[in-house]
Amino acid sequence: MATEMQKRAAELLLEINAVTLKPEDPYTYKSGNLGPIYTNCRLLNSAPAQRTEMAGLLVRKIEEDLEFKPHVIAGTAMGAISHATLIADRMGLPMVYVRPDEKDHGLPGKVVGELEVGDLALPVEDLITTGGSVLGTARGVKEKGAHVHEALAIFQYGWEEAKENFKKEEVILHTVTDLTAMVEVANEKGVLSDADVELVREWIKDPVAWSNKMKEKLGKGE
Fold first, then answer.
1. Using an 8 Å Cβ cutoff, are 144 and 175 in contact?
2. Which end of the chain has fewer CB atoms at under 10 Å, N or C?
3. How many Cβ atoms sit within 10 Å of the Cβ of residue 19?
């Protein structure tokens, strides 16, 4: 069963269509694979009420569940910069953001903002799929002498690949909500039928196999 925080965060995302679910008419992703969900947490930026409440949930997650209290918030460019800024503002902490690549002009470096050697940084992301982006943020601040033990995100799919990636980097991932909670809430609200729920759960277990099965069913094979 989802927690009160997980369910409320899921509701906020559903309210503004930041998460949409179409198991029987799946989305085509950039990879070419099919999937039952499309997530765009950046829509929170255009929804003041939901944005403000989500920021409160993120701060509450830090205060209640993180083992280490951060010295600095590190946003992942570009999607999580706004959320990292709101967290830092509420907590009275400095904030930096980390580019995915080095600049080829002006001042060099991936990290934008001031970090002190030995700072405990908290990388922040909006959506976790494989975890690659936020773990890149973690590596970026580590290169500047900061420490990273944990990372924070709004939403995750719960893929095994992500779990393995965080384990390899020795970073503990915390999220305000996840796809399991989202499915529970969507089912309660009538957004997903019981049959749809089973389809989404199958996708979580093996996205590639699910995609191949749906392509065959819908006649979208290569």
1. no
2. C
3. 24
Residue 46: CB atoms within 10 A of its CB come to: 10
What is the residue extent of each domain of the chain? 4-218
CATH class as words, domain 4-218:
alpha beta
d(CA 138, CA 17): 29
Structure token digits, residue 216: 């065959």
Predicted confidence at residue 106, as pLDDT, reads 59
What is the signed CA dihedral for 188, 192, 196, 199, rounded to 10 degrees? -80
The mean pLDDT of 108-129, rounded to a whole number, is 94
Edge-to-edge strand order for the sheet containing 121-128?
111-112, 95-98, 72-76, 121-128, 150-156, 172-178
What is the C-alpha end-to-end distance of the chain, expressed in Å?
39
Confidence of residue 162 (pLDDT cuts 50, 70, 90): very high
For residues 203-210, give the mean pLDDT: 94
pLDDT of residue 107: 64
Structure tokens at 41: 């947490």
> Rounded to whole angstroms, what are the CA distances from 3 to 10, 21, 71, 189?
11, 21, 28, 16
CA distance 217 to 5: 37
- pLDDT of 133 over the 70 cut: yes
**Peptide bond preceding 78: is omega within 30 degrees of 0, i.e. cis?**
yes
